[in-house]
Amino acid sequence: MLYNLLYPLVDQVAVFNLFRYLTFRTGGAVLTSLIISFVAGPFVIRLLRQKQGRGQPIRDDGPESHLLTKKGTPTMGGFLILLALTLSTLLWADLTNAYVWIVLMVTLGYGLIGFADDFLKVSKRNSKGLPGRLKMALQILLAVIASLLTLRLMPDPLSHALAVPFFKNLLIQMGWGYVVFASFVMVGASNAVNLTDGLDGLATVPVMIAAGVFALISYLVGHAIFANYLQIHHVPGSGELAVFCGAMVGAGLGFLWFNAPPAMVFMGDTGSLALGGALGAMSVVTKHEIVLAIVGGLFVLETVSVIVQVASFKLTGKRVFRMAPLHHHFEKKGWAEPTVVIRFWIIAGILALVGLSTLKLR
Question: CA 242 to CA 238: how far, in whole Å?
Fold first, then answer.
């Protein structure tokens, strides 16, 4: 909004030329969402405590310590992230950019699905929430709509193609099958982050790291000169998503202030589904879907651990892990919660560096 309002006045006020630069507006988005989180956080948490009473229901089959340490903690804290993220994006992004609106649509749409899920968990006092099939159907519907809108904006030959990292010009043309693939990326990323969000701060920092990586990727992909130099595929207009990513980093950092162990609030499905969906949508727009699997490798590991656990138990009657997702396995082994969280953060940071290396290794 500031860009649309102030940059046209640059001839009268020279300082407004700053709004031309994505780097300036991305930095502004980070600070704005951080400030909104700090200011609104105490009020939002207080409101959630008043409305929820006994807080989020804790799984009976989860680690025993959670029944003591996490009982009474309110959920739906993802609302704070979405509030800061949305307001900051609307303030600093170019609102004529369609990619910004598509990613915002996925983020808020998935956040609304997560909110409904959290609301049912709290109001019905059980840990099940929305029926799984309905939840998945709504996610797929949103992802398909976002994929189709993105294809209409994307230039040929990128629109229906999968870009492969480490290769200069390799595009796998998928036709309309790309809609299925792109939808799978968004739904998969959303649920992967949701599975990871099981300990205080565990999902928040890896999401911030991934958002920071995609801020750089979107900036480079959207810049014709940089994209040509790095021999990555140029997507005109995608650079504006750097502002969105900056807002996500700031919102995540502000939320972490309240979510750090011991958490004052959980993000719940309201936050985890939305943030995962946002990462998936950004990877589709920037044509870096495979890189997301590397950068978000921690989310992939958590998801695979659940798939392996379920498949093993159904086929053999035995469990591979003491408990799934993977972070609970290490808790069952005796690792303290902060140990699990910080070590998983380190893994996320390492994987982010590997993902960034794909920009230069061609």
Answer: 8
